[in-house]
Amino acid sequence: MLLRKTYRFEASHVLPRHPGKCSRLHGHSWVLHVETEGQVNEETGFVMDYAEMSAVVKPLVEKLDHRHLGAWCVFLKDRTKIDDSAISDSLLAEIWGADEDYFSSWKVPGLPLDFYPSSENLLFWIGSQLAEIQFRWSKLALEETCTSYAELGLDEFMVWYTNKNGFPAAQFVLEGWMKK
Asked: What share of the chain is helix, strand, coil (3-state, %, to 5)?
């Protein structure tokens, strides 16, 4: 049986390589759909209690809420002069003459500074966060607008995750999911 729970968050982003208006700073009321599947437990009558799902997913959604996704791209006045690996809160503060804490409060904790915040990349990041805490999801979907929607299935995610992190990391995730 398939279960789906929906979560909402507000966040801004910039897609500097986009040829249209999305290359400018803008925000969305994002909608995240998390699906899991399994057998109905005869004792509880549940595949999973929705509260159990929320206990895992809500903290991740709260990390994203009212933040800027991919913080580096709006702050740098001239990115051609700076290597992405050198970007830090202190560098941003120095460039803009601001308090270092100001910029750190905009970022999503755990999201790399060089993250390119397309819906597709955000789904891979969310999937990774959930996989690393061994939450067994089967499909993730993200609505960027009321007419734009991206979806990530588990098979596609596992191929991407294995390519990015290597087989041992993917095996760890799968073994953890098999125990549940």
From this structure: 45, 20, 35
Check whether 152 has a pLDDT greater than 70.
yes
- Kindly give the residue spans of alpha helices, DSSP state H, lying in the chain: 50-64, 72-75, 89-96, 100-104, 119-132, 154-165, 167-179
**Residue 77 confidence (pLDDT) above 50:** no
Contact 169, 160 (CB under 8 A): no
pTM of the model as a whole: 0.84
Is 50 exceeded by the pLDDT of residue 103?
Answer: yes
What is the pLDDT at residue 91?
Answer: 66
Segment 79-89 shows an average pLDDT of: 57
| Residue 78 reports pLDDT greater than 60 | no
160, 126 Cβ separation under 8 angstroms: no
129, 26 Cβ separation under 8 angstroms: no
CA 163 to chain centre: 18
Task: Count Cβ neighbours within 10 Å for each residue of 130-158 and write b for 16 or more, e otherwise.
Answer: bbeeebbbbbbbbbbeeeeeeebebeebe
Domains for the chain: give ranges and CATH numbers.
2-67+116-179 (3.30.479.10), 72-105 (no CATH)
Picking from 143, 60, 72, the residue whose alpha carbon sits closest to that of residue 106 is 72
